[in-house]
Amino acid sequence: MADRTRRVGITDVARAAEVSLSTVSRVMNGNATVDPDLAARVRATAAELGYTASPLARSLVLGRTQTVAVVVPDLANPTFQAILRGISRAAGRDGYHVLIADSAEQVGEERLLAEETRRRTDGLILCAPRMPQPELAGLLPGLSPVVVVNRAPQDAAPVVAADYRTALRELVEHLISLGHRHLAYLAGVPGSASNAARLAALADARDAHPGLEIVELPSGVDFDSGAASVDAVLATGATGILAFNDLVAMGLLSSLADRGVRVPRQLSVAGFDDIPFARYTTPPLTSAAVPATELGERAWAALHARLTGGTAEPFTTLTPRVVLRASTAAAPS
Amino acid sequence: MADRTRRVGITDVARAAEVSLSTVSRVMNGNATVDPDLAARVRATAAELGYTASPLARSLVLGRTQTVAVVVPDLANPTFQAILRGISRAAGRDGYHVLIADSAEQVGEERLLAEETRRRTDGLILCAPRMPQPELAGLLPGLSPVVVVNRAPQDAAPVVAADYRTALRELVEHLISLGHRHLAYLAGVPGSASNAARLAALADARDAHPGLEIVELPSGVDFDSGAASVDAVLATGATGILAFNDLVAMGLLSSLADRGVRVPRQLSVAGFDDIPFARYTTPPLTSAAVPATELGERAWAALHARLTGGTAEPFTTLTPRVVLRASTAAAPS
DNA sequence: CTGTTAGCGCGTTCAA
DNA sequence: TTGAACGCGCTAACAG
């Protein structure tokens, strides 16, 4: 029955096994150059005393913590939750721990959280930082090694990002292939990078298809915004609707049902994000699934590479997977 | 222009300010007994050199890391995400960092993760641990200070838990008040604690209402389980259905619509959890909202109390809030 | 192969 | 009020 009044340290083991500290240290670290018998004895007493080396002390002397920090803008956002999960599991597989910091959309806190958590860890993953580009550019060098998720390419850090532009483009092509020539886009927050990416996709599509008409309608990012857009949508006469995201699409779907408009017979509707409930709407929603978990895994891979002396791809892009469901069909003739 | 080739330590500051290490240390820690002028000079050089004390070294000497660990069974589960968010934000407000570990439902990993992360931190929050009670009871004493979320009361640690039993009971009473006397319950995983709590609620209700009939139907925890249960549900002749959770309820709703059964005119359906989309189903779903974020906040409060020498309530219970929507109405006459 | 010694970077006695 | 010395618990270089 070991005395649990105090944590047992390497000194206790050394004394109990009648060897020096170094020998215990060597045994615990699997250093080969130790007499097998001695090693066995040390291991035995260590086990008996329930000894484990203090991670803190090891970190101090080794200069590494086996921990990385992740800063997210909002832990309530499913996308960041999924990214975090991807990072956490991938890092865990490589024997790393994850320290997490939620800036709760307080842009002013981002920098502090990043610097503070970085100091306690071996590296940092910055998820979709909200700070302006000049500030980010100035911050990154002091944070190295650091990986950025979902921002434009950076000089001072590898970036792993979802390609919203290509994804929306694929959604547009899908509607075109169904015979739609008159589309409407329900825009999200005007200033946001992801909305800009979507607008770029629409511009690409217009260039590629001269006969194509795409009306841009200001809307929002939630269910109510979509529901409120129904009149504007119907007024355009468009046959295919691209919603900023699935919530907007669901709101629209709901209002369309109230109006008696048949989807997809009269109108095709596509969402974005492929949230878990997109498959349960009436009709099930065509959408584009952002591979958030994989984004996290890739971010970890990039950081791990830099942590182990390797080098990471400066810019990794993951294209959301278009999921075709019953809310889109041939344009009415 | 500071030389960034190496991290600046307390020694550098001391030398630059021409004082001893101790003085710098005192100044940085706001120790009052320092000459104001000297303190100002030290602060200036520290700022100039961009010096911040190494959290690692401080932790080693102070014996605390200002960090706590959270072990969750599944980072993909919205409930644990919400609990984590509650913990993270509350801990952040108190100046603590959060180390996170996801056991990914590998029961065998739980113990190791708990012990390992606990050693790197000042305390631990164990979320809905899946391990059997004997193992948990044996593990907790060595993890102190530790707080457990969503388990039965423990001897060796404060527990913060949602009161599923009372919540389901309230849902039952709601249906009874609407005139329902014949109910059916779609059970989740047989062995789970939360299913047991629900069954206890049903037993309570039966005791309180002699005329009440409640049929228990094995089902599952997801949309498809609910959808598959439609025939069994209709066969019971019950007028009010209690689904294990919202997903099951949504699946049932979907199949009922296919069958042409009107909800809530012919049949009332209640879910559980109040997931974000419960309000968007057709009809919107009556449910019970588990206050997961608050659960996390309470868990933090309990741990923080023990971290600061205080004492925490041994068992805190939070009752989910019943949310009445259009999927439940008066029983058909 | 093993033990002794010197730090890792800091907070905190103890004298001065 | 300040500085010198010690120790937190451990690893690594250096002798033996």
Structural account:
By secondary structure, chain A is α/β, with parallel strands linked by helices. Chain A has helices at residues 10-17, 21-28, 36-49, 55-62, 78-93, 107-119, 133-139, 164-177, 193-208, 223-228, 230-236, 246-259, 292-307, and strands spanning 67-72, 97-102, 123-127, 146-149, 159-162, 182-187, 213-218, 240-243, 268-270, 287-289, 315-318, 321-323. Chain A has a six-stranded parallel beta sheet with strand order 2-1-3-4-5-11, sandwiched between helices. A four-stranded parallel beta sheet of chain A has the order 7-6-8-9, with helices on both faces. In chain A, strands 10-12 form a two-stranded antiparallel ribbon. In chain A, α1 (10-17) packs across α2 (21-28), α1 packs across α3 and α8 (164-177) packs across α9 (193-208). The radius of gyration of chain A is 27 Å and the shape is elongated. Chain A binds a DNA duplex (16 and 16 nucleotides) through α2 and α4.
- Could you describe the largest sheet of chain A, including whether it forms a barrel? 6 strands, parallel
- C-alpha termini separation of chain A: 84 Å
Determine the structural class of chain A based on helices, strands and strand pairing.
alpha/beta
Strand order within the widest beta sheet of chain A: 2-1-3-4-5-11
Summarize the structure in short.
2 copies of one chain form a homodimer. With 333 residues, the first copy, chain A, is α/β, with parallel strands linked by helices.
